[in-house]
Write a structure and sequence with these properties.
With about 210 residues, the chain is α/β, with parallel strands linked by helices. It is about 20% helix and about 15% strand.
Length: about 210
Amino acid sequence: MQIRAATHRMSGRIKSTYAVMSLAGGLAFLPAGSVLADSVDGTFPTAEQVGGEVYVEPVAVGKKLPLDFDTYDLNGNKVDLAKLVSGKRSMVVFFISAVPVSVAELPKIEDFVRADGKGINVVYVNADTVGSALQGGPKAAIPNTVKTMHVIKKEKNLRTTQLYVAPNDALSGEGVSNRLGFRGLPTSFVISATGVVEKVFVGPQNWKSGDI
């Protein structure tokens, strides 16, 4: 499988700082006995504890990238992400707004694509929602996250308007992060005009001509 990861590696147990997912609202509905991050040392459970793999491999090269999940634009309106990339060779960048290293990669990608992207269509997807327990409850999650996206766009001086929000449940097998196989580090999928994965980049990259 053709995956280029960042030069640094995390240990066998995922540190919560690199797996920050918005869990507000979901924790109250967990069944008894569910295994969560260890409150003592802040690490996530081992594979043995959860009865499976802690690391979920990204969607493999040669496979179609699933994009049939709820997605919202910078106005808070629901959009069809699959249609936004249909018929265009695209780079779909998943990041987590609560993880600084993830957000810091966005302008790097934008600068690289403008210089060497060869016309590739780039969309950025924040697979996170801002906690809203004290700010209007679940209904405020998308509006609050959209506001955060506008702040990121301004602070990082991003030219693109193709910034989206995809609410994620990291504790569910059907959550976006688990279906596609990514965590707190940015994960970029280069897909063909038909939606088939050509390349996968995990973590911050030293982007160079020819990468995409």
